[in-house]
Amino acid sequence: MPAAAPRPAVLVARAVFPEVVQRLRHHFEVEDNPRDRIFGKAELTTRLAGKAGAFTMGSERIDADVLAANPQLRVVANMAVGYNNFDIPACTARGVLATNTPDVLTETTADFGFALMMAAARRMAESEHFLRRGEWTRWAFDMFTGSDVHGATLGILGMGRIGQAIARRGALGFGMKVIYHNRSRLAPAQEAPIGARYVDKATLLGEADHLVLVLPYSAESHHAIGAAELARMKPTATLTNVARGGIVDDAALAAALRERRIAAAALDVFEGEPKVHPDLLAVPNVVLTPHIASATVATRRAMADLAADNLVAALTGGQPPTPINPEVLTEGRLRAR
Ligand code: GLV
After folding, report:
1. pLDDT (tens digit, 9 = 90+) per residue, 43-100?
2. Which residues line ligand 1 (CB under 6 A)?
3. Atom of ligand 1 nearest to the CA of 105
C-alpha cells in the first residue's frame, strides 16, 4: 500500500476552545499553545517553520519578514474581523491566503458598542465607582446628570456591517437621528430604513451627540480622531471606540476629557493595548473595557469555528468561506503546491 501523504502542519498561535483544536487535529499535525503565551516576532517566525497554516488572533503580526522566513506557509486564518495585524499585500505577493471572521460577530459587537455609548452618556462607570468608594450619602437633583440617548443624534464613523447594526439599534430602538461618514455612501435602500444621512466628517463631528467609531484601522485611519477633531465636537458629546486602538489619539482624548471639552468617552480598544495610556486611567469620565466587544461565549465560538473552517477548507482543497485576499485563489480554492 502506498504511504499516506503527510498531513499538513498548522500552528494554533493562541489558546482557543479545545473542541476547535481537536477538530483541527482530525486534519492536521497541530502545534497549539494551551498556556496562551504570546509569541514575539522571533518566536512566531520559528514556530511557523514547516507549517502550512496558522490560526491567529490580533496579537500575531504576519508581516513580510515572517512570510519571507516561512515560504511554505499557505494560509493565515485570523480569529477576528479586523486584520490590521496582517500585511495583506505581502501575503498576496507570496500567494498566502489570509482569512478573517466577519458577520458572525456583527450583532454581538453592535450590542456592546451601543451599551458602551449608553454607559458613557449616562455616566454609569463613573457613578458606580463613586458608589463603591462609599461617597454616596444623599440623593441630589444634579447628581451624575448625563445626556439622553433616545432622540439624540447618533454619529457613526465607518458604516460597515457593525456600524449599520449600531445605527439600526439607535434608529429603530431609541428614535435616534442617524448621521454617518464612510469611505463610500450606502445605497439609498440601506439608508432609508434607518433614516441615515451621509455627511462629511466635519459635519459628523459637529452634529453628533454620540459619536461611535467603527472603522477599520489602517495608515489612513491612524489618529482619525485627534485634538483637531475633538475640538469640533460638542462639549456635551460622547465618543465611543469599538474599532481599533490607534484610530483615536489617546493622549489628546484624555486631555479633552480632563478639560471637559467633550462630556465623556467609552473605549474598548487602545493604542498599544493591553497597555492603557495613564492619562486615560486618571480621568473619571471615560468607560474602559479590555477589548471585549465580541466576547460572548456563542460569538467567540462562532469566530473560532469560522477561522477553523477557513483553515480546513484552504488546506484540504475546499473553498474558504471568508477570504480577505481571494485573488490568491483559483475558482475559490488554493492552488496545490
Ligand atoms: C476584534 O477586535 C475583531 O476584530 O474581531
Report:
1. 999 999 999 999 999 999 999 999 999 999 999 999 999 999 999 999 999 999 999 9
2. 58, 80-82, 105, 294
3. 5
Task: Give the pTM.
Answer: 0.96
Q: Are 141 and 224 found together in one domain? A: yes
| Residue 337 included in any domain | no
- 209 belongs to a structural domain: yes
Domain extent at residue 139? 106-288
Q: Report the nearest atom of ligand 1 relative to the CA of 82.
A: 4
Q: Is the pLDDT of residue 4 over 80?
A: no
Tally of domains in the chain? 2
- Classify residue 176: in a domain, yes or no: yes
- Spacing, Cα 158 to ligand 1 middle (Å): 15
Do 94 and 122 belong together in one domain? no
Structural domain contains residue 1: no
3 state SS for the chain: CCCCCCCCEEEECCCCCHHHHHHHHHHCEEECCCCCCCCCHHHHHHHCCCCCEEEECCCCCECHHHHHHCCCCCEEEECCCCCCCECHHHHHHCCCEEECCCCCCHHHHHHHHHHHHHHHHCCHHHHHHHHHCCCCCCCCCCCCCCCCCCCCEEEEECCCHHHHHHHHHHHHHHCCEEEEECCCCCCHHHHHHHCCEECCHHHHHHHCCEEEECCCCCCCCCCCECHHHHHHCCCCCEEEECCCCCCECHHHHHHHHHCCCCCEEEECCCCCCCCCCHHHHHCCCEEECCCCCCCCHHHHHHHHHHHHHHHHHHHCCCCCCCECCHHHEECCEECCC
User: 302 alpha carbon to ligand 1 midpoint, in Å?
Assistant: 13
Of all protein residues, whose CA lies closest to atom 1 belonging to ligand 1?
Answer: 80
pLDDT at 5 over 90: no
pLDDT at 1: 62
Of 55, 60, 105, 268, best ligand 1 pocket probe by most atoms within 8 Å of the beta carbon: 105
Q: What is the CATH number of the domain that holds 80?
A: 3.40.50.720
Give residue 301 CA to ligand 1 midpoint distance, Å. Answer: 13
